[in-house]
Design a protein that fits this description.
With 173 residues, this protein is α/β, with parallel strands linked by helices. The chain is built from three helices and six strands; from the N terminus they run αββαββββα. The chain has one domain: 2-Layer Sandwich (Double Stranded RNA Binding Domain), CATH 3.30.160.
Amino acid sequence: MLRQMVLKLLVISILLLQGCGYHLRGFGDTLPSDVKTVAILPFDNKTFEADMATLLESSLAKEFSRVKRLSVVPEDQADALLTGSISSFENRPVSFSSADQVRDYRVEVTVDVRLKYRQREEILWTGKGLREVKDYKVEPGNEDLAEINKNEAKETVADELAELIVDRIFEGF
């Protein structure tokens, strides 16, 4: 009896949530059904961090491949084009030792992204001011470790931005 009641409540809850437009993250799809492929065009990099655009483009390709809802193809074969611009890259100290030496830095990247049909000028989705941050540690006098940690932070930020962008494209935010 209790089991049946719990099961009924669960079914009713699921039906109510579906009716309200709620869904699990990563399962929404607001793209038109004719969009099955995407080309990731080179991002405009308005910063002095030369490799950030390449990192982000690579992370986007991996993320689309991971979610398997749009295939990444060359531009001339794509239904949609993903373009973007890295508007800011900041790398600033965020914590200091008692001797006033930097212990942690924060990488912060902001991007503007647009998905549009390849064959016409209709915009499918726009994301402005999308931002991710990652802190990393440094040790005074160890420049090599600082550079390694900074590069890892940049890769993490690129991966997180790619996940955010792909999620938002499918969720319509």
